[in-house]
């Protein structure tokens, strides 16, 4: 599940690694999402979040609603949102207007598109953030493409999520639009075109069941709430 709506989502800004809170609507989305998880009988045995508060808080709200605040939690920078570099904090509609629809789409959704990097002072501040202290400084990126994100997410899938799934656990990942696109690219074995067309709405649980070889039974998974596909189209249209 992607976190609930954040303050910068509501403003229509690129967010990336900026640590912004949820809006009241985002909190509400997350509680509703947890209710659909409960209706589906999918009580998680373990939860994973990024190091950003919109993911952490969404997971807490969901687990609180499910009365599962006690389950093991693992947080990782590998699940953080994509580093959007110089686009961080910018209004999407302004960027689209300045750069044109083709470049905007290339930067936002293509496999290899990378905008300009984060300015040096902003990168230095991020690298000094105590939450990234255990990382090699160059692991905190100045900008990332979706392909870079896939490289970042693969070890988490292989070393952390796969062993839990193999052990039969129901695993809840509460992360971000682009870290979840990267995870979907890995587990659904998406082509570049498919990854480019994938948009993930906030607070919409997406269910994946796997066979013994960890291949998804339903490619692309199934949204618990049937209205989620229409909400994904709204994400695609952001900035238009
Ligand atoms: O701003 C961001 O970090 C992401 C998610 O909110 O935006 P986009 O959907 O445009 O990749």
Give a quick set of tags describing it.
Rossmann fold; single chain; binds 2-phosphoglyceric acid
Helix content: 40-55%
Give a count of the beta strands, DSSP E runs of length 2 or more. Answer: 5
Average pLDDT for all residues: 97
Q: Radius of gyration, rounded?
A: 17 Å
Q: Ligands bound here? A: 2-phosphoglyceric acid
Question: First CA to last CA: what distance?
Answer: 25 Å
The CATH architecture name reads 3-Layer(aba) Sandwich
- Stretches where pLDDT falls below 50 for ≥5 residues? none
- The helix/strand class is mainly alpha
Please identify the top-level CATH class. Answer: Alpha Beta
Task: State the shape.
Answer: globular
CATH superfamily: Phosphoglycerate mutase-like
Domain unit count: 1
List the helices and strands and how they pair.
Elements: H1 7-11, H2 24-39, E1 46-49, H3 53-65, E2 73-75, H4 92-99, H5 101-109, H6 120-127, H7 146-166, E3 171-174, H8 177-187, H9 192-196, E4 206-207, E5 222-223, H10 228-236
Parallel strand pairs: 1-2, 1-3
Antiparallel strand pairs: 4-5
Helix pairs in contact: 2-3, 4-5, 7-8
């Amino acid at each position: 599940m992607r976190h609930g709506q954040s303050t910068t989502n509501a403003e229509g800004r690129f967010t990336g690694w900026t640590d912004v809170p949820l809006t009241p609507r985002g909190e509400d989305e997350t509680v509703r999402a947890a209710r659909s998880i409960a209706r589906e009988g999918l009580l998680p045995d373990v939860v994973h979040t990024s190091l950003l508060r919109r993911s952490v808080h969404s997971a807490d709200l969901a687990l609180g609603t499910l009365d599962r605040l006690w389950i093991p939690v693992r947080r990782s920078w590998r699940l953080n949102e994509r580093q959007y570099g110089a686009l961080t904090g910018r209004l999407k509609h302004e960027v689209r207007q300045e750069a044109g629809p083709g470049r905007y789409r290339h930067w936002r959704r293509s496999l290899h598109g990378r905008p300009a990097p984060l300015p040096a002072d902003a990168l230095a501040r991020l690298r000094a953030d105590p939450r990234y202290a255990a990382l090699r400084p160059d692991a905190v990126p100045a900008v990332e493409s979706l392909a870079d994100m896939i490289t970042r997410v693969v070890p988490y899938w292989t070393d952390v999520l796969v062993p839990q799934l193999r052990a039969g656990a129901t695993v809840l990942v509460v992360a971000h639009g682009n870290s979840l696109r990267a995870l979907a690219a890995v587990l659904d074995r998406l082509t570049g075109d498919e990854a480019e067309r994938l948009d993930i709405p906030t607070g919409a649980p997406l269910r994946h069941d796997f066979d013994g070889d960890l291949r998804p039974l339903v490619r692309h998974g199934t949204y618990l709430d049937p209205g989620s596909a229409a909400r994904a189209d709204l994400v695609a249209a952001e900035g238009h």
